[in-house]
Specification:
Blueprint lengths: L1 H43 L11 H7 L20 H15 L9 H12 L4 H8 L3 H22 L2 H7 L1
Helix pairs in contact: 1-3, 1-4, 1-6, 5-6
C-alpha cells in the first residue's frame, strides 16, 4: 500500500517536471523564432538612400526605349516586412537588452551570438570568427538561450505574457 502511494507521488513529480521542461523548451523555441523573424524583418526594411544622386544601376535601367528589340519591363518584386515581423523586431530588441551579466559573463558577445545565429550563420563560421571550437560555441549558445528563457519565464513582463503563455 505504501509502495503504491510512493509510485503515485513519484508519478506526479515526474508529470510536474515534464510540464516544466516542456514550458522551458517552448519558451526557448519562441525566443529563437522571434529572433529569426526579427532578422528577416531587418533584411526587408528599406535602406536609407540619397534620392538626389542617381546610382549607375538606375541610370542604366532607365535608358531603354520601348521600341527597342527585346524590350520588356519586369515587375520588381519588393519584399516588405509584415506587421508581425515588425512586432517581433521590437520584441527581439527587448529580449536582447534583457541579456546582462546574470545571463552571460560577456553580454555583448552573447547578444552578437544570438543575433548572428538568428541570421542562420553556421556554428563553424562563427567558431572561426570568435576563435572557439564549434561544439564549445554551440554549448555557449545553448546556455545563453536557456538562461534567457529562464529569465523571461521568471520575470513575466506584461508584453511577453501574451507571447510566451
Amino acid at each position: 500500500m505504501q509502495r503504491i502511494f510512493f509510485i503515485l507521488g513519484f508519478s506526479k513529480v515526474l508529470n510536474q517536471l515534464n510540464k516544466i521542461i516542456k514550458d522551458k523548451i517552448k519558451i526557448e523555441d519562441k525566443i529563437v523564432r522571434i529572433l529569426v523573424d526579427a532578422y528577416l524583418c531587418e533584411r526587408y526594411l528599406s535602406k536609407p538612400h540619397n534620392r538626389r544622386c542617381p546610382s549607375m544601376y538606375s541610370l542604366i535601367t532607365t535608358c531603354y526605349d520601348v521600341t527597342d528589340f527585346g524590350y520588356h519591363e519586369k515587375a520588381l518584386l519588393k519584399l516588405r516586412a509584415t506587421p508581425q515581423q515588425l512586432t517581433n523586431y521590437s520584441y527581439a530588441i527587448d529580449l536582447l537588452l534583457m541579456i546582462k551579466e546574470d545571463v552571460s559573463d560577456d553580454p555583448v558577445f552573447a547578444r552578437k551570438l544570438l543575433w548572428l545565429r538568428a541570421s542562420r550563420i553556421p556554428f563553424t563560421k562563427l567558431a572561426k570568427l570568435y576563435g572557439f571550437h564549434r561544439t564549445t560555441l554551440k554549448r555557449k549558445y545553448e546556455i545563453i538561450l536557456e538562461r534567457l528563457a529562464e529569465k523571461v519565464r521568471v520575470n513575466s513582463i506584461d508584453k511577453f505574457d501574451k507571447i510566451f503563455i
